[in-house]
Amino acid sequence: MVGPVPIDQGISMPHVTLPTDQPGIRGLFRFRPETAVPLNGLVEALLRGPSTLTGANAS
């Protein structure tokens, strides 16, 4: 199922029912594995790119 899911006070939010019990982003990566590599690359670029912080400070 893909589509809005009603929440309280008449507001709805997007929802994708996943065929996996993996929580969060892991479940999405298993649902659409072709998106895992580019999204992980983006995360690495954003979180581990050039910075004035050391690796220990950034974690």
Q: Can you describe what's shown?
A:
The protein has 59 residues and is an alpha+beta fold. The protein contains three helices and two strands; from the N terminus they run ββααα. It has helices spanning 24-31, 36-48, 55-58; strands at 2-6, 12-16. Strand 1 and strand 2 (12-16) form a beta hairpin. It is extended and about 45 Å long. The termini are far apart.
SSE blueprint and pairings:
Layout: E1 2-6, E2 12-16, H1 24-31, H2 36-48, H3 55-58
Antiparallel strand pairs: 1-2
- Helix/strand/pairing class, anyone? alpha+beta
How far apart lie the N and C ends? 35 Å
Helix content: 40-55%
Widest sheet, order of strands = 1-2
Tally of helical runs: 3
Q: Tell me the strand percentage band.
A: 15-25%
User: What is the number of beta strands?
Assistant: 2
Rg, Cα atoms, Å: 16 Å
Oligomer: single chain
Low-confidence sequence ranges:
none
| Overall morphology | extended
Mean pLDDT: 75
* Biggest sheet character: 2 strands, antiparallel
| SSE topology string | EEHHH
